[in-house]
Amino acid sequence: AVDLDELEPVASVAGQDRTAVFTGEMGFRFDEQLAAAVAGRLPDWTLLLAGPASPEAEEALGAHRNVVLTGRYDHHELPRLLARGRVALVPYRQNEFTDTLVPVKLVEYLAAGRPVVSTPMRAAEGFADVVTFASGPEAFAEAVRYVGDDTAEARRLRVERVRSYSWERRIDEM
Predict the structure, then answer these.
(1) pLDDT grade, residue 22 (50/70/90)?
(2) Are 114 and 158 in contact (CB under 8 A)?
(3) Would the pLDDT of 44 be above 80?
(4) Reduced to 3 states, what is the DSSP secondary structure of residue 16?
(5) Phi and psi torsions of 90, nearest 5°
């Protein structure tokens, strides 16, 4: 579940040109090699990666001038971080474990109206109407470039798509 009241206002504005954002832990699910290869293919973009990074992620991404590793952030900063991104990223490793996930971050990104580029996850296929799934560095980078062209109507549709994931709705269901 997500706090729509906190994130929905972000959808009223487009993010910064050529800024892609990831929020969360860059640990065992995060594909630092994919993210680094995408950064190399998008030298005119900024990859804003907010959250704790594993040593492997720091090593793979730290050499890229267009990558900003913020470290830990407080959850109340999430709307501000997402407002900066023109595109939101879910560059997860592709394996049996991640294939079973629908990451909360994916729903948060949509609740903020952001276009999302993600590695494919079988459990998240139900979001294919509002998420661009891409495998491999070239396809992922091209998807980031493509979905970076955004409209107010598209942002509104993304928010509507995840309205059923609000805390109020989840509590009513329980």
Answers:
(1) very high
(2) yes
(3) yes
(4) coil
(5) -130, 75
Closest CA to 2 of 114, 99, 95, 84: 114
β-sheet bridge partners, residue 48: 21, 68
168 band by pLDDT with thresholds 50, 70 and 90:
confident
Distance CA 45, CA 22 (A): 13
Residue whose token pair is 């948060």: 108
Q: Taking the C-alpha atoms of 9, 48, 56 and 104 in order, what is their torsion angle to the nearest 10 degrees?
A: 10
pLDDT digits over 58-113, tens only? 999 999 999 999 999 999 999 999 999 999 999 999 999 999 989 899 999 999 99
Please report which helix (H) or strand (E) contains residue 68, including its range: strand 67-71
**Residue 164 falls in which region: left (phi positive, over 0), alpha (psi -120 to 50) or beta:** alpha
| Residue at 10: amino acid letter | V
Specify the pLDDT at position 95.
96
Spatial distance between the Cα atoms of 61 and 69, rounded to a whole number of angstroms: 8
pLDDT at 49: 98
Q: Which residues contact 88 (CB under 8 A, 6 or more apart)?
A: 20, 21, 22, 23, 82, 105, 109, 112, 114, 115, 116, 117
